[in-house]
Design a protein that fits this description.
Elements (H helix, E strand, L loop, with lengths): L5 H9 L7 E3 L10 E4 L6 E6 L23 H10 L6 E9 L7 E2 L3 E3 L6 E6 L7 E9 L8 E8 L10 E6 L16 H7 L4 E4 L16 H11 L3 H7 L4 E3 L16 E2 L2 E2 H11 L8 E4 L4 E5 L22 H12 L5 E6 L21 H12 L4 E5 L5 E5 L6 E4 L20 E5 L4 E7 L8 E7 L5 E8 L2
Parallel strand pairs: 10-11, 11-12, 16-17, 17-18, 18-20
Antiparallel strand pairs: 1-9, 2-3, 3-7, 4-5, 4-6, 4-8, 8-9, 10-22, 13-14, 15-16, 19-20, 19-21, 22-23, 23-24
Helix pairs in contact: 1-3, 4-6
Length: 475
């Protein structure tokens, strides 16, 4: 059902505080690509930053006919230089405290950053309090210096305790292209709209950027890093990630190229480099597949769809896999061991679909039907479990006709990015289908009596308005 939510969005926007910005203290390392805070549990979080030569970065003008420029030509080299956010050596630390209690701040040691990891550093914060808003200040200085040259202020939430029936709101996106941003100066317009919903956390399901799209084709580690630099120097992205904790999942376009699998290369960019750069550019723990509990009523699983997969060209059967045996065993064991009211699988690619018949890269395709059937059958045996997916450039709610598993596709970040499907392809599986950009929000909450938990899935357009709402109560 469609909800009249535009007024709600406007009211929420009125409550948005001004993003804490970058405080510059003088010459020395800056943080033009901001900070990213991620992987929050009830007691831990990871804070990421990157030191840069300059503290201000403006989106470069679009280069006319960039797709026609020859890779490596003087014209392409000049164009690429416009987008660079050069890194620099220096030292960095994180100060953090429960909101309003800076007098009790804790801080990490100063750590050196260098060129070997694109001047990035991730800090693990432990012994945090559950269900708490933390404020942070990430400070930079010259190596061996005494004066702070830049500081970025931010905040994040830790997850509630497992026995707390807390309201949780999170947002989900996919398909984020630099040249398809809807605000050339600021970035993708959905970010302040998501912030207006006061999310507990955010999920990017992959295709965070596109190595294999022109301007330039990132066929080297250097150009892959450039695409991360310019995307997260955009003000909307930079400011959002300083204020909302995130979980990042990679997919094909931010590993190598379209529908890629282990052992492939993209120009001079190797598979191993693609894996390394992803972990370098986002806050990430030991494994890229993990589960996080957010209170009594919600547990979320984030799965890895590239590292362990068989070649797409391999004939389907029991040995063909996307997840790999270790991850699949972990997923089924941890799901069965969970007592959360609602359990949600967040997958970089579809589990249910339907997808285009020509595709052969995900569990909704014939090429991975055997494992797809296995996963869908398992999820169908669970109570109050749903699938949220990225990858597809359209929004949908679908129900598998065999197992009844429900899947919610968040759709791409902008209307410019929407396509590849049409209303003519609508099937009986679709409860909702919209060829447009935006994002998905999920709210898990109880009524005023503290009873009757429910999960609410809302598809939003690029202006924040709710296009579809699906309320799921206990089975």
């Amino acid at each position: 059902m469609k909800a009249p939510s535009f007024l709600l969005v406007c009211l929420n926007l009125a409550l948005v505080v001004v993003f804490p910005g970058v405080v510059t203290g003088g010459d020395g390392p800056q943080q033009a690509t901001g900070i990213k805070i991620g992987e929050a549990t009830s007691e831990t979080a990871i804070v990421w930053t990157r030191l840069t030569e300059g503290g201000a970065w403006e989106a470069a003008p679009e280069v006319k006919d960039i797709k026609r420029l020859e890779e490596g030509s003087d014209e392409m080299v000049d164009a690429v230089a416009l987008w660079r956010v050069p890194g620099t050596e220096g030292e960095v630390r994180v100060r953090y405290w429960p909101a309003g209690g800076e007098q009790n701040a804790e801080e990490t040691e100063w750590e050196m950053v260098g060129e070997e990891k694109d001047f990035t550093r991730s800090f693990f914060l432990g012994e945090l309090k559950p269900g708490t808003t933390y404020e942070t200040r990430v400070e930079a200085r010259e190596a061996g210096g005494d004066e702070v040259s830049s500081a970025v202020e931010g905040r994040f939430r830790t997850a509630p305790s497992d026995d707390e029936a807390a309201k949780v709101v999170f947002t989900v996106v996919t398909g984020q292209g630099y040249h398809r941003r809807d605000d050339k100066e600021k970035g993708h317009g959905i970010y302040p709209l998501m912030w207006a919903l006061d999310p507990s956390f955010f999920v990017h399901t992959g295709d965070i950027l596109y190595y294999d799209k022109p301007a330039p084709d990132a066929q080297s580690a250097d150009l892959a890093r450039l695409k991360w630099q310019r995307m997260y120097a955009l003000p909307y992205q930079r400011d959002f990630h300083a204020q909302v904790g995130s979980y990042f999942i990679k997919d094909d376009h931010d590993t190598l190229d379209n529908d890629s699998w282990p052992g492939k290369t993209y120009g001079d960019l190797t598979w191993d480099e693609g894996l390394e750069i992803f972990r370098e550019q986002v806050p990430m723990g030991e494994r890229t597949f993990r589960t996080r509990r957010w209170g009594k009523d919600l547990q979320v699983w984030f799965v890895e769809g590239r590292d362990f997969r068989s070649p797409n060209t391999m004939p389907d059967g029991p040995e063909k896999t996307i997840w790999g045996e270790e991850q699949k065993e972990w997923f089924m064991r941890t799901v069965e061991g969970s007592d959360a009211t609602f359990r949600i699988l967040v997958s970089p690619t579809p589990i249910v679909g339907p997808d285009r018949t020509k595709k052969n890269d995900n569990h909704a395709n014939e090429g991975f039907k055997h494992e797809g059937d296995e996963i869908r059958s398992f999820i169908a045996d669970q109570e109050n479990m749903y699938v949220v997916c990225g990858d597809r450039h359209w929004q949908y709610v679908s129900v598998d006709p065999v197992t009844g598993v429900r899947e919610y596709s968040c759709g791409p970040t902008t209307d410019q990015h929407a396509g590849g499907f049409s209303q003519d392809q609508r099937s009986d599986m679709h409860e909702y289908l919209n060829i447009r950009g935006g994002f998905l929000s999920v709210t898990v909450e109880r009524d005023e009596s503290g009873e009757n938990p429910k999960a609410i899935f809302r598809h939003h357009g690029v202006d924040g308005t709710v296009q579809n709402e699906d309320v799921r109560e206990l089975e």
